[in-house]
Amino acid sequence: MIINKFIDYLNLEKSYSPNTIKAYFTDLKDFEKFSKSNFDNMNIEESNYSIIRSWIVELVNNGNSNRTVNRKISSLKSFYKFLIKIDSIKISPLEEHMPLKQKKKIQVPFSKEEITSLLDSNYFPNTYKGKLQKTVISFFYFTGVRRIELIELKESNLDLKSGTVKVLGKRNKERIIPLLPKIRNLLQEYISERNNVISKLNHDLVFLSNKGDRLSEKFVYRTVSEYFKLVSSKTKKTPHVLRHSFATHLINEGADINSIKELLGHASLSATQIYIHTSMEKIKEVFQKTHPRAK
Question: Active site includes 5?
Fold first, then answer.
């Protein structure tokens, strides 16, 4: 089956994450179902832009946002590029397609005061779980890593002596992130506690449950969400907002955007630009204070 071949390609050759692969598979199966139901069992690889356009209309009519529709069409685009690669088709039916216009999604980072209020508090119980959760939240803010990067972080990639951590990001791209003294000390304390609590380590992973298991994505998400409810009234309280806060606070303090791009593991500057938009008020303040003709 052609979709399964594409999924194998994403997994084995592109090394995409399980969640990304699942999203591609779901999008392609949804489109295949639409094509077969509405166009006489037409195979997905034989589809044309007219059929795809009909699917787009149905997606919009069913209440999907332009952002969601664009993501689904992006999955199709990648699929047809794969078909060209294996000589199954000559031209992609989406070659001339223009994405739907979408509103820029503005992420609201946690303030420095909110983060300080949480990390310097007594909210975390003096238990293994409490120490684990405090270290997880702190590690997000001190390094700006993604949720899956934290979960899959190996102790062999952690060098507390030199103060660096090697992170394996999207598409197996490695990057080195420096570790400040506070997070190094916290990691040392956590690892010492972990080794006391868990008699036999079955993983080379840094962060483990009290049973020695890999942390689930739900556990990490809930850890961030539940603790930030104690200090923040913001609607979104997620690991990604902590990553966003990391970058925004660095920019506010004058960090170079190219350096932030490398720390975050972004493939291009365009992905990092969003943090400049959220810091515009700070930029205006600096501009007002420093420009020779501002006064």
Answer: no
Residue in 72, 131, 134, 146 annotated catalytic: 146
Q: Which position among 170, 175, 234, 236 bears the catalytic label?
A: 170
Superfamily grouping for domain 112-287:
Intergrase catalytic core (1.10.443.10)
Q: Is 266 a catalytic residue?
A: yes
User: For the segment 13-50, what is each residue's pLDDT rounded down to a tens digit?
Assistant: 888 888 899 999 999 999 999 998 888 767 888 889 99
Of 72, 131, 134, 243, which residue is the catalytic one? 243
Catalytic residue status for 146: yes
Cα distances (angstroms) measured from residue 56 to each of 6, 33, 40, 66, 72:
22, 14, 18, 10, 9
Alpha-carbon gap, residue 32 to 22, rounded angstroms: 15
Of 287 and 290, the structure prediction assigns the larger pLDDT to: 290
pLDDT confidence of residue 182? 96
CB 176 within 8 A of CB 269: no
Per domain, the residue ranges of the chain are 2-85, 112-287
CATH topology assigned to domain 2-85: DNA polymerase; domain 1 (1.10.150)
Marked catalytic residue, from 16, 24, 80, 275: 275
